[in-house]
TrEMBL record:
<keyword id="KW-0813">Transport</keyword>
<feature type="region of interest" description="Disordered">
    <location>
        <begin position="32"/>
        <end position="51"/>
    </location>
</feature>
<feature type="signal peptide">
    <location>
        <begin position="1"/>
        <end position="28"/>
    </location>
</feature>
<dbReference type="Pfam" id="PF01547">
    <property type="entry name" value="SBP_bac_1"/>
</dbReference>
<keyword id="KW-0732">Signal</keyword>
<comment type="similarity">
    <text>Belongs to the bacterial solute-binding protein 1 family.</text>
</comment>
<feature type="compositionally biased region" description="Polar residues">
    <location>
        <begin position="32"/>
        <end position="42"/>
    </location>
</feature>
<protein>
    <submittedName>
        <fullName>ABC transporter substrate-binding protein</fullName>
    </submittedName>
</protein>
<dbReference type="InterPro" id="IPR006059">
    <property type="entry name" value="SBP"/>
</dbReference>
């Protein structure tokens, strides 16, 4: 289906701009998938839960707890790799094969629209309904497509600045201040700053943060691509310059989340942009050299704190699942207060239940919770579109080329704009 830019703008005028770009999806599955979505809604039995690598070691204990209470509806954990793009492609392959063994799947917030438009996710309506009233509105939005809820928000994610408080007394609030602090890293013989700069979804997150943090944006207020601007160029230029002058160590061009975490835990970085899951591991890993010496601050921006890209994961029920009644209860289990507290205390994952951020037991254990809530509440969502794979490719390819020096920032931003326009106008 072709979707014209005019249509994109119309959708935005209809009040959808707040969540970014929203395009009408082509329903690839059609009525056959609607039937699939309805079948098995009363049926109970064993199910499989599919998720990326359980870096925080929270999934197995949770599933053991569930299985002890549900001997006839046991959940088996299918663990994918730790790389966002591989997780996405694995899900797509299994949906295309109509795999009935991928019952409940963990969906990155940016895949909801694509999977829902393909009719792969069971709408959480009627018997499948879940109560979202206590959940952070931003997380519910990420699980919603065309006004229908397609998944249960499971964990949220907001970017944080991890820093060495033994070396830096007051964390920088602006990008320039952070770059000035890089002399401290030089004196200490360690790298200054890293984020996620390998060519994958994490680069889309980091490039968007650099652009938003400098006052630019990927999409304009009307929801159409608007990245060829002075402010967006300045944001991308900040990353390019930092690579050039070594403030971002050269090897960070290969970093996904885990490589950056390891470098930081080994004491090799002064500053690290990463998600909240790093807190627990940096504190408890036997090999962490920074257990008592790291702090957490908001991401730095242009004139003050910056804006994170909104991350997070939602749990959805595949339309091909044969045991949707069990899958539905498992979703409710995932968003229950007990599970959400467990995610927070055991894995320092960001709860989707708003009240937990002020829960005194939790804030005593996890002092960074107010900073995290601010990061999530002020986070910028990535574009919401069934054509997200082409959108993220436009951002990744061009920002990567700029970081590697194979395109100037001007060229990169110009090409990004053109590729975004083509991705959002033709549904490539
Ligand atoms: C985290 C975020 C997710 C993001 C991914 C990028 O898992 O929760 O939203 O897409 O990192 O690597």
């Amino acid at each position: 289906m072709k979707t014209s830019r005019a249509k994109v703008r119309l959708a935005s005028v209809a009040g959808l701009a707040a969540v970014g770009l929203v395009l009408t999806g082509c329903s690839a599955g059609g009525s056959a998938n609607t039937d699939a979505a309805k079948s098995g809604q009363d049926s109970r039995g064993p199910i499989t839960y599919v998720q990326g690598k359980d870096n925080s070691n929270v999934v197995r204990p949770l599933i053991e707890k569930w299985n002890a209470a549900h001997p006839d509806e046991k959940v088996t954990f299918k663990e994918q790799s730790d790389q966002a793009d591989q997780q996405h492609d694995d899900l797509v392959q299994h949906f295309q094969a109509k795999d009935e063994n991928y019952d409940v799947v963990d969906v990155d917030v940016v895949w909801t629209a694509e999977f829902a438009a393909k009719s792969w996710l069971t709408p959480l309506t009627g018997e499948m309904k879940i109560d979202t009233s206590k959940l952070l509105p931003s997380t519910v939005k990420t699980a919603t497509y065309n006004d229908t809820l397609y998944a249960a928000p499971q964990t949220s994610d907001g970017g944080l600045l991890y820093y060495r408080k033994d070396l830096v007394k007051t964390p920088p609030t602006t990008w320039d201040e952070m770059m000035q602090d890089c002399s401290i890293a030089k004196d200490a013989g360690i790298g200054c700053y890293a984020g996620q700069f390998a060519k994958y979804e994490g680069l889309t997150v980091n490039a968007s943060e650099a652009i938003n943090g400098a006052g630019g944006s990927i999409l304009g207020k009307d929801g159409a691509p608007d990245v060829d601007t002075t402010a967006a160029k300045a944001g991308l230029q900040n990353l390019v310059d930092a690579f050039k002058d070594g403030n971002i160590p050269a090897e960070a061009i290969t970093y996904q989340e885990e490589q950056g975490r390891t470098a930081f835990e080994n004491g090799k970085l002064l500053f690290l942009r990463n998600w909240p899951y790093v807190y627990n591991l940096a504190k408890t890993d036997g090999s962490s050299k920074v257990k008592d010496t790291f702090g957490i601050a908001p991401l730095p921006g242009k004139d003050g704190v910056g804006a994170s890209t909104l991350g997070g994961h939602n749990a959805a029920i595949s339309v091909y699942s044969k045991h949707k009644a069990t899958a539905h209860d498992f979703l409710e289990f995932l968003i229950s207060n007990d599970t959400q507290k467990f995610f927070a205390t055991q894995g320092s994952l960001a709860p989707v239940v708003g009240d937990l951020y002020t829960d005194s037991e939790l804030t005593a254990k996890l002092p960074y919770l107010p900073t995290l809530l601010k990061s999530i509440e002020s986070a910028e969502p990535r574009p919401v579109t069934p054509f997200y794979p082409a959108v993220t490719k436009a951002i990744q390819d061009n920002s990567y080329a700029a970081l590697k020096g194979s395109k100037s920032v001007d060229e990169a931003v110009k090409d990004m704009q053109a590729a975004l326009e083509s991705a959002t106008s033709s549904g490539n």
